[in-house]
Amino acid sequence: MAAYTAYNDLPSLQTAIKTFDNSDAESVIKTGILDAFTRHQAFEKFGIQLLHRHFPLSDSDILLEDHAVTSPFPKPAPNVFPSDRIIPKSWFYGPGGTLEPYEYRIVLSPAEKEATADVGDDATFAGEIHEILVKHNLVRILGLSALGGHGYRSTDTVRFEKTFNDRNIFLQVGVDEIGRTKKEVQTSLWVFVEDEGGMSQDGGRVAGAAVSKLLCISGCMCQRVEDDDDL
Hints:
The chain has five helices and ten strands, in the order ααβββββααβββαββ. By secondary structure, the chain is an alpha+beta fold. The protein has a ten-stranded mixed β-barrel with strand order 1-6-4-5-2-3-8-7-10-9. β7 and β8 (167-174) form a beta hairpin. α2 runs antiparallel to α4 (123-135). The longest helix has 16 residues, at 25-40. The protein starts with 12 loop residues before the first helix and ends in a 14-residue tail after the last strand.
C-alpha cells in the first residue's frame, strides 16, 4: 500500500476503524510494537495512533492543539512568532519511511518545548516501528503520537475526543461515563506503561499498557452537538 503524503490523504474515522478491524493491527500492537516500546523505554514519550482525520484542512492550514482544543491554524512562516512554539504532535510514515507530522501542538514556554518528545530524536525506535508496520501492512493504519505530558495514565479516566464542526474538544472523563454513552467509541491512541512486575496482559488491554486510552466517537467527523448527547 502506498504511504500517505498529506493530512487530507488520511481516512475518515469510520473508514480507519473498518480498516483497523480488518487487519491484524490489534495483535501487532500487543506483540511486536509493545516489544519495541519495551526495548527503547518509549512509554513516557509516545503512543501508537490510529491514523484518521475528522475534517479536511485547507492547504494553508495545519491542525493545531492548544490545551483542550484542536483546530485549523494558519501555517506559521519560519522564524516568525509563534513558529518556535509550534511543534509536531503526531506523525505518519511517508514514502521511504520518512516521518511526516500531521498534527501539531503549541507550547507555552521553551521549557515545555524542551520537555516534549520529538520522534526525530529517537530515530532507531522510529525505524523499528516503521519496519514492524511495513512487515504487517499497517503503514496506512498506524502512526506515532507524542504524549506531551497529558494525563493518559489514569486507570479511572480516559481522554475523550469529540468533534464539533472543525474543532476537536478533549475531555477527561470517567471510564464508567464511556460505558454509559449512547455513541459507539473507538480507541484511537494506545498508551503503554510498565508495571513493576514487567509487562502483562490484563483484561484485553495491551500488556500492562493502555491503562488509559484516547477515545473518539465513531462517526464524529463534522458532528454537531445534539441535545441528548451523553458526552
